[in-house]
Amino acid sequence: MAEKKVLVADDEIHIVHVVAIKLRNNGYEVISADNGIQAFELACQDLPDVIVTDFQMPGMTGLQLVEKLRQCEQTKDIPVILLTARNFVISQQQQKDLQISQCLSKPFSPKELLANIEDILYRKVLNQ
Amino acid sequence: MNRIRISYIIVTTCVACSLLVAGLMGWHSRHAALCMFAYCVGAVGVIWLSWFWLKLARSITSIATALEAELPELDAGFPQGGGSRRVSSIQYRESVIKRIGSYSNLVEQLCKQVKDLQIQVKLSQRQKANTEAIIYSLPDAVIVVDESDRLLMANQAAGKLFHFDFKSSQYKPIDELIAGDKSKFVDFLRQTKHSQVEATRHEIEFTQDESSKIFDCIISCVYDERHQVCGAVAVLHDITRDKLIQQAKTDFVSHVSHELKTPLASIMACSEMLADGEADDEETKKQFYSVIQNQAKRLNRLIEDILNISRIESGLIKIEKQPVSLTIIIEEQLQMIKSYAQEKGIEIIAQTPIIYDQVYADKDMISQVIINLLSNAVKYTPCGGSVKIDTAVNQISGTAQVTVTDTGVGIPKNEIGHIFDKFYRVSANNNQAKGTGLGLNLVKQIIEKVHHGRVFVISEPGLGSTFGFELPLAIGQVVEAV
Are B351 and B457 in a shared domain? Predict the structure, then answer.
């Protein structure tokens, strides 16, 4: 079975590094970006199965990235997990409108992130 | 009455003296003319006294006549006959005198009451004037309307807020005076009066002088003796600044929590990976340990910066000013930054001649300023670039100046105005280096707030930036301190 691909976008390289190791150790292919613009380009190019993005990034925020992804035919259905260090940045309605699968607050547990990714991919398979 | 009494005394005295003088001198003395004069004065005095007593007798008789007319029963109660009539007349006179006394007391009481009322009226007028003066001088807008929503009273602040002149607007309907976006105030006023509640409170936003202002509006009903609403009093307190401060606090807390959570996220993630044995090889483990260590230091620096800025802003920081040499401080900080610069292959150029004119400053704080400027310069300069630090003295303005110039990425023009703001980081430079966004704010606080100096920046995107500060020279400062 082909490895599931995860795009991790965060300007904190340590976060990206740790998450990448965790996901690779659990059989995922990981592509990374350190800003929103690069993340969008990679998403269109590589069509990952899940995108994990930070909320606050240079160039384009995580929220702007998701909005752009939803406007693009190729990427509109890719599930997104939003990481944020600020409270109350996104309402339930906004989360629903942008089809954000999960919002995780920093600091987060890599185990919890992995569990969320697996859950999203499982539900995606069920829906198909 | 007093005047009559005084004149009576004077006249009596004059008569007595003149008669005495005439008696002493004698008719046949050589001062016959003077004696004649004294007799004349005496005669005039006697005539005046006779007139006075006659007038008094007539007054008493008229009072008695009036009382006699009102009290016929006194006369009817006494038997007729020569002797009895004489007795009844005496009793009658006694009763009249008693009644005169009681009426006199009554008149005195009435006079006293009138005086008291006059005093109370004067006091009330003074209190009213005091109250009006207080209301007019209040910075909050105060408006009083009657039961028909007509303006009864308004102070200067209300006139300025709603653009009307009270003197020409008194008794006019309030909705004629207040219109446009401020008419919502009139709506609140009416709602409060109709609701019959004692008081209501609203937050109202108005546009004034092209800026938005927020007011805390308290409207209280005024009740009459039948407990019916007969008017309302509105007080509007400007809370715009309070709201801005509240928002700034909220934003600050939001920024701080974000900045604290970011390194904490790295620490927690790496710790969990190490604890779960997810770091397969030694190299990965070393990386995780290094991340934990560096992020912990970052957290510590952030907390220190936040605390220092808070202490400076609240005035609680301990400041120890003394004459210090900028040259020596710069040399010390250059030693600290040298290794970091060497790692990046950045050349450090110091043009810091000995400044004989020292500055009067807190050495630790100025050291912090210089290290912040130097580390920023090295951080945002690509490998192979250069950082130059200069010092200079301006004898005319009495200041010493330090500038740090780099060949780094520069700052866009639209962001240069915010560069010293708390937590502000140039978005384009986020990839270049990490930072708390507090370093330059701390520089500004130390130089401007603590040392009454000036910070400045000149920058060109892609070419580099020059950050600098000026401090007053020590001579003037030391004299002032003494």
Answer: yes
- Find chain A residues with C-beta within 8 A of B258's C-beta: 56, 85-86
Is a pLDDT exceeding 50 seen at residue A72?
A: yes
Span B5-31, mean pLDDT? 69
How many folded domains does chain A comprise?
1
**Nearest neighbour of A11 by CB, restricted to B257, B280, B430:** B430
> What number is the average pLDDT over the span B276-301?
89
Instruction: Please give the residue range of the domain that contains residue B56.
Output: 2-70
User: A24 in contact with B at a CB cutoff of 8 Å?
Assistant: no
State the CATH number of the domain containing residue B196.
3.30.450.20
**The total number of structural domains that make up chain B:** 4
Q: What is the pLDDT of residues B68-89, one digit of tens each?
A: 666 555 555 544 544 455 557 7
Mean pLDDT along residues B412-421: 87
Amino acid in the structure at residue B392 = A
* Residue to substitute from B268, B281, B299, interface A, most A β-carbons within 10 A: B268
Instruction: Please indicate whether, in this complex, the C-beta atoms of A18 and B427 are within 8 angstroms of each other.
Output: no
User: What is the Cα B204 distance to its own chain's centre?
Assistant: 22
Q: Could you tell me which chain A residue has the CA closest to the CA of B435?
A: A12
> Could you tell me which residues are beta bridge partners of residue A50?
A6
User: Over 90: is that where the pLDDT of B186 sits?
Assistant: yes
Of the candidates A15, A35, A111, which has its C-beta nearest B265's C-beta?
A15
**The two three-digit tokens of residue B141, written as one number:** 């807008």
> Both tokens of residue B63?
């009072």
DSSP B281: S
Q: What is the pLDDT of residue B222?
A: 92
Whether residues B350 and B450 fall in one domain: yes
pTM: 0.61
Residues B353 and B455 in one domain: yes
Boundary-marking domain end, from B291, B311, B331: B311
CA distance B378 to A8: 29
Q: In terms of domains, do B305 and B176 share one? A: no
Residues B40 and B18 in one domain: yes
Q: Residue A68 is part of a domain; what is its CATH number? A: 3.40.50.2300
pLDDT at A89 over 90: no
Q: Is B273 on the interface with A (CB under 8 A)?
A: yes
Q: In the listed set B209, B238, B267, which residue is the last one of a domain according to the structure? A: B238
| Claim to verify: residue B322 and residue B378 sit in the same structural domain | yes
- Read off the tokens for A104: 């995780």
A–B interface: beta-carbon pairs under 8 A? 72
Per-residue pLDDT, averaged over B252-263, amounts to 84
pLDDT band at B482 (very low <50, low <70, confident <90, very high): very low
Determine the Cα–Cα distance for residues B250 and B244; give it in Å rounded to an integer: 10
CA angle B437, B438, B440 (to 5 degrees): 95
Residues B456 and B351 grouped into a single domain:
yes
Q: Which of B273, B284, B434 to mutate to test the interface with A (most CBs of A within 10 A)?
A: B273
Separation CA B383–CA B287 (nearest Å) = 23
Q: In terms of Cα–Cα distance, which of B49, B154, B64 is closest to B103? A: B64
| Record: contact A21-B279, CB cut-off 8 A | yes
